[in-house]
Design goal:
Blueprint: E1 6-7, H1 11-18, H2 23-47, E2 64-68, E3 78-82, H3 91-111, E4 123-127, E5 136-138, E6 143-145, H4 160-174, H5 182-204, E7 214-215, E8 230-231, E9 240-241, E10 245-246, H6 262-269, H7 271-284, H8 292-301, H9 311-326, H10 330-341
Parallel strand pairs: 2-4, 4-6
Antiparallel strand pairs: 1-5, 2-3, 5-6, 7-8, 9-10
Helix pairs in contact: 1-2, 3-4, 3-5, 4-5, 5-6, 5-7, 7-10, 8-9, 9-10
């Protein structure tokens, strides 16, 4: 198992901001990029040949601890909230704690999973990380949240789907362990978007047609022209802003982006499997975590998904899973049609 350093804000957005002539724009972006690059290198070196962590004791209640970095770039920081404590005076601490709980609750009640490793892994998070740090990440063991710079990005605890997204990188780490490059890396990102969105929908009690299918809604600053970081319903439409640029995500293989940047475009091409899931969930209706989500979850955790899987392999496995779970009916029809619509073969 090789945990990777996974951030919610794609490098291509930060690259664009770093090229600005405005120091209030480029300074936090450049600091964030430098930080993230260093962490990615450290993560690769530290995890070569790493083994899985020892299993904990599964419980139906989470074990959450929130730490405060005090605007330093050290983790975990000072403990400020433990499991069972009452609400803190710090709203950021409370939002982080609540979202960790919502993610734990979702995986337990929807799929019978006990924390990200299915063995009761404690859920730890560090808030107030760095100064004007414009990102949030899963470092292989815990969550870390920046406060944003207040102009381009808001506090990174404001979106429960962002926290669900990052913790799902942990679920992937402990299951299929998808390589973070090319199509397998885009699948890694897409699965985090899928379950991040489902965690939000579950917490709000939304059906597929009620959900906004946005990732990071509320993260963009007040003067940014956009609604979120990504849209699963309409990839490529989440933002179009003079400073951020235009959302580059494709919805189908016709617009697949071939690039060496961002580990082969993992945050860009994830729009294709994202859209496929949205199409399946919309076709089946109801609560998306129940049937569409169960197909994706069983495919991720079933032991058949190779760590270097491409879109076509994942598509074939979701079709096989849908047929195994639900037989010949609307579920398998929805899966086959969705992958066909985004241009990914299933046979």
């Amino acid at each position: 198992m090789k945990p990777v350093f996974c951030t919610i804000v794609p490098p291509h957005i930060l690259d664009r901001l770093a090229e600005s002539d405005d120091p209030t724009v480029y300074e936090p972006a450049r600091r964030t990029l430098e930080h993230d690059s260093l962490h990615r290198t450290r993560r690769r070196v530290a995890t070569l040949g790493s083994a899985a962590a020892p299993a904990g004791t599964p419980s139906d209640t989470p074990r959450r601890t929130i730490y405060d970095a005090g605007h330093q770039e050290t983790t975990p920081g000072t403990e400020v909230h433990a499991e069972g404590d009452g609400p803190a005076k710090d709203g950021t601490v409370n939002r982080a704690n609540s979202a960790l709980g919502a993610t734990f609750d979702f995986y337990l009640k929807a799929y019978g999973r006990h924390s990200v490793d299915d063995a009761g892994l404690p859920l730890n998070a560090t808030v107030h990380y760095g100064t004007n740090y414009d990102n949030a990440f899963w470092d292989g063991t815990q969550m870390v949240f920046g406060d944003g710079d207040g102009r381009l990005f808001n506090d990174f605890t404001v979106s429960v789907d962002v926290i669900g997204h990052e913790l799902t990188h942990g679920v992937t780490q402990y299951t299929a362990n998808l390589e973070y490059y090319g199509q397998s890396g885009a699948l890694n990102e897409s699965l985090s978007d899928v379950f991040g969105s489902l965690i939000k929908q579950y917490a709000l009690g939304q059906t597929a047609d009620q959900a906004d299918w946005l990732i990071g809604q509320g993260l963009l600053g007040p003067h940014i022209h956009g609604t979120a970081l990504r849209s699963m319903k309409a990839p490529g439409t989440a933002y179009d802003d003079p400073q951020l640029g235009k959302d580059p995500q494709p919805a189908t293989m016709d617009d697949y982006v071939r690039t060496s940047r961002d580990n082969g475009g993992v945050h860009t091409n994830s729009g294709i499997p994202n859209h496929a899931f949205y199409l399946v969930a919309s076709a089946l209706g109801g609560h998306a975590w129940e049937r569409a989500g169960k197909v994706w979850y069983a495919t991720l955790t079933g032991g058949q998904l190779a760590s270097d899987a491409d879109f076509a392999e994942f598509a074939r496995l979701t079709a096989a899973t849908a047929r195994s779970l639900y037989g010949e009916g609307d579920a398998i029809s929805a899966v086959l049609k969705a992958w066909s619509q985004v241009g990914v073969p299933t046979s």
